[in-house]
Design goal:
Chain A is about 75% helix and about 0% strand. Chain A is mainly alpha-helical and about 350 residues long. Chain A has one domain. In chain A, a hairpin with a 2-residue loop joins strand 1 and strand 2. In chain A, helix 2 packs parallel to helix 7. The longest helix of chain A is centred in the first third of the chain and has 32 residues. The N and C termini of chain A lie far apart (about 50 Å). Chain B has two domains: about 220 residues, 3-Layer(aba) Sandwich (Rossmann fold), CATH 3.40.50.2300; about 130 residues, Rossmann fold (3-Layer(aba) Sandwich), CATH 3.40.50.2300. Helix content of chain B is about 40%, strand content about 20%. Chain B contains twelve helices and 15 strands. Chain B has a six-stranded mixed beta sheet, sandwiched between helices. In chain B, strands 8-7-9-10 form a four-stranded parallel beta sheet, sandwiched between helices. A three-stranded antiparallel beta sheet of chain B has the order 11-14-15. In chain B, strand 14 and strand 15 form a beta hairpin. In chain B, helix 11 packs across helix 12. Chain B is globular. The two termini of chain B are about 40 Å apart. The chains are: A mainly alpha (about 350), B alpha/beta (about 375). Chains A and B meet through helix 1, helix 7, helix 12 and helix 13 of A and helix 2, strand 8, helix 7, helix 8 and helix 9 of B.
């Protein structure tokens, strides 16, 4: 391996690492706020790309109908959970969030999709379709279990993952899709050919990381999320509704997932079940950061990306083995460092 | 649309199984409508409604079950089909692991079995169990020989290989390595990648460093397009070969201009309309393509669905012979059906012509493959 190959591989690794970083951040966010290890995160990536691909063909993606169906289910779940405290105002809010909103999204999609209004409009539509699925999934699957042990939440997450993957196969078929590149720009930096798309990926990831930082440090919602993450009971005592925090966390996670999907769509072919492996690598990064540290997770994700890229050159048959083995020394180190601390439950 | 058809198939299978008559022939089908093999199993499931409902005066009932590309599930399906439905023949196993597992069930229950998987391991080396197993898709070796021949004709001296890091890629590597050796072509790089990989830059750089004359990509379906794209991006200008696993229209859709001029061996069905009139399987191939596209829309056909069509043609030829020895639903009939399948001679189906022998249960020759290339985003038959 000479220097030029090394640089190409590092650049390639950073591009994938930037996507893993986004997913790792949303996994950390969801875990700290709701204690859910959010395995279905990757499904939102696949849904994002495939919804975009369908929109590019000028058709209404089936996911637009799924949002309505999930919304109605979430509405029912919401009313059941709140049946003792329901007021007219709360009922109206739930209905607006779970019935009116998805119907509006469906109407907008049906109206705009056949006109092929170009990349920006289609991207916004794809984000609008996939993002609400996060809060709905929370209402349906996780809100009723909010006080259950982490293990129960994990099993529920596996269930959601299997359901979303199965639906993905029905909606999009077994073959993958690729979407149009944001820019055809490519430039040569020394020996490295940098494509416009990879700049977009890295730029968007960096912007999102900064954005999340600003939200968490300066906005009321961000502070509420952080408070829930630090201490759920304490947050409730000062008037923060943990369920609302949960919905917001899932919403952000779905948004980040869909955005990641839009970013990698032009780089690679995405299948209905591609999301799982991508999400899993984000998960490895999140684990390295102990599922709590955002900067740690982002750095670990970049490391995973670069390790993966180098491994694919040196020993392609063992690439995945090498990537996932990175987790073992980290776990060893962590368990030696924090010996004796037990889970509270 | 897909969903409607699948629901239709399920509903049809259900209503048929409820209306089961005592004297008809029953064919049990277990295929991969979900899971990693879904791109094979879905067109196969859509082909079932096109199959004849009557063979040699007997009503035929097809019972379709999904095995999720999982060998254990396939075995459970097969046992259910044999014990509950008392099927006369088993068809299926869209993927090789499922098919290999089904051989056991077929032998144990003495039920003739036609596999829809690519690997020759399903039917060879022939033994007491595999004598109940037959196969309609082409063996990898038949396709690999065509690629090795073509490379030699083009004067290639070295080849770079990149394939799936699973049974498909490994199988191809094992089959083609000795063939390349015999032609004096050197394998200068062997790289692996996974179906879900988002980048193969590392592998491609390594191949390029070895400076091969040609590159062979052994992947199935749309994932086979990724290495081709990366090779072009990195400025590779030599010939790129693909395997027949990439032979569907989704590969062209995803590959776009990056897979232009790719060369690959495929079953005749893929280019049915371009086949010369002298080609033996032209009529059957056109029959299949027309029926499939009438039901599922233009350009929807794939070669994978045709394998179940061909399995049924084998049964259509064997059943009249077997009926002389016993009534459907009896062990005598199943034994006779197995013997009749083994005795098939020059049976023309959509993927060529088959002549079975006691040691060869696929029975194909060079008529079961054609070489194609991609021109302007369409398949084009290469004259050999």
């Amino acid at each position: 391996m000479d220097l030029s190959i090394f640089l190409i591989l590092v650049q390639d690794g950073i591009t994938s690492g930037a996507i893993y970083a986004l997913l790792a951040l949303s996994l950390v966010l969801v875990f700290t706020v709701t204690r859910v290890i959010f395995i279905p995160q990757g499904e939102f990536v696949a849904y994002g790309t495939l919804t975009m691909a369908t929109l590019e063909m000028g058709e209404v993606p089936t996911t637009a109908y799924l949002v309505v169906a999930l919304g109605v289910l979430a509405g029912i779940a919401g009313m059941l959970t709140e049946r003792r405290v329901i007021t007219t105002r709360r009922l109206a809010l739930i209905l607006a969030e779970t019935v009116l909103l998805p119907l509006l999204i469906l109407a907008a999609t049906a109206l705009l999709a056949p006109r092929k209004l170009g990349l920006p409009v289609e991207m916004l539509l794809a984000l609008a379709i996939v993002t609400p699925m996060g809060p709905y999934v929370y209402r349906i699957a996780f809100r009723p279990l909010a006080d259950a042990p982490t293990l129960v939440l994990l099993i529920a997450a596996v269930g959601v993952h299997l359901a979303l993957t199965g639906l993905g196969l029905v909606f999009f078929g077994a073959e993958g899709s690729r979407t149009t590149s944001f820019s055809d720009l490519s430039m040569t930096l020394g020996p490295v050919l940098v494509s416009g798309q990879s700049l977009w990926v890295i730029g968007a990831s960096a912007a999102l990381v900064v954005g999340l930082f600003l939200v968490f440090d300066f906005s009321l919602i961000g502070k509420a999320l952080r408070a829930t993450a630090v201490n759920r009971l304490g947050a409730r005592l000062v008037g923060i509704e943990p369920a609302l925090s949960g919905r917001i966390a899932f919403g952000i996670a779905a948004f980040i997932g869909a955005l990641s999907g839009l970013l990698i769509g032009p780089l690679t072919t995405v299948y209905y079940d591609s999301g799982f492996l991508i999400g899993l690598k984000g998960f490895v990064a999140a684990i390295i950061a102990g599922l709590v540290s955002y900067p740690g997770a982002a750095l670990a994700a970049l490391l995973i990306g670069v390790v993966e890229s180098l491994a694919s050159f040196e020993a392609s048959a063992f690439k995945e083995v090498i990537v996932f083995m990175v987790i073992i020394p980290v776990l060893l180190w962590r368990s030696l460092l924090h010996a004796g601390i037990e889970e509270e439950e | 649309m897909n969903r409607l058809v699948m629901i239709g198939v399920a509903a049809a299978a259900l209503s048929l199984s409820q209306a089961a008559s005592a004297d008809g022939i029953k064919i049990g089908i277990t295929i991969s409508q979900t899971g990693p093999g879904a791109s094979l199993g879905i067109p196969q499931a859509k082909t079932v409604p096109l199959l004849p409902k009557e063979i040699a005066g007997q009503s035929v009932e097809y019972i379709v079950l999904d095995d999720g590309s999982d060998a254990t599930k396939a075995v459970a399906n097969a046992r259910k089909l044999v014990t509950d439905e008392k099927v006369d023949a088993l068809v299926g196993g869209s993927v090789t692991p499922a098919s290999i597992a089904l051989v056991e069930v077929a032998a144990e229950t003495k039920t003739p079995f036609i596999s829809l998987a690519g690997s020759s391991a399903v039917i060879s080396p022939m033994d007491d169990k595999k004598k109940w197993a037959f196969k309609s898709p082409q063996n990898d070796a038949l396709m690999a020989a065509a690629i090795a021949d073509h490379m030699a004709k083009k004067g290639a001296k070295s080849v770079g290989f990149i394939g799936f890091a699973d049974a498909y890629g490994d199988g191809w590597l094992n089959v083609i390595t000795p063939m390349l050796g015999a032609k004096g072509i050197k394998l200068v790089a062997t790289e692996k990648y996974a179906r879900a990989d988002t980048s193969v830059t590392g592998q491609v750089l390594k191949i390029l460093a070895a400076k091969p004359d040609v590159v062979l990509i052994a992947g199935a379906g749309t994932p086979a397009a990724l290495p081709a794209k990366t090779l072009r991006e990195r400025g590779y200008t030599g010939l790129v070969y693909q395997t027949h696993g990439a032979g569907n229209n989704d590969f062209l859709r995803v590959g776009g201009k990056d897979v232009e001029d790719t060369i690959m061996p495929v079953g005749p069905v893929l280019v049915a309309a371009q086949l010369p009139g002298s080609n033996a399987s032209k009529t059957r191939a056109m029959e299949y393509v027309t029926a499939y596209e009438a039901a599922n829309g233009k350009d929807s056909v794939s070669t994978f669905g045709a394998h179940i069509f061909d399995a049924d043609i084998m049964l259509q030829n064997a059943i009249p012979v077997a009926l002389k020895s016993g009534k459907p639903g009896t062990p005598e009939f199943r034994q006779a059906l197995r013997d009749a399948l083994e005795g098939l001679k020059e049976v023309v189906y959509s993927h060529g012509v088959t002549t079975m022998t006691p040691t060869d249960h696929v029975g194909q020759d060079a008529r079961s493959r054609v070489m194609v290339t991609v021109k302007d985003g369409h398949w084009k038959l290469l004259q050999e």
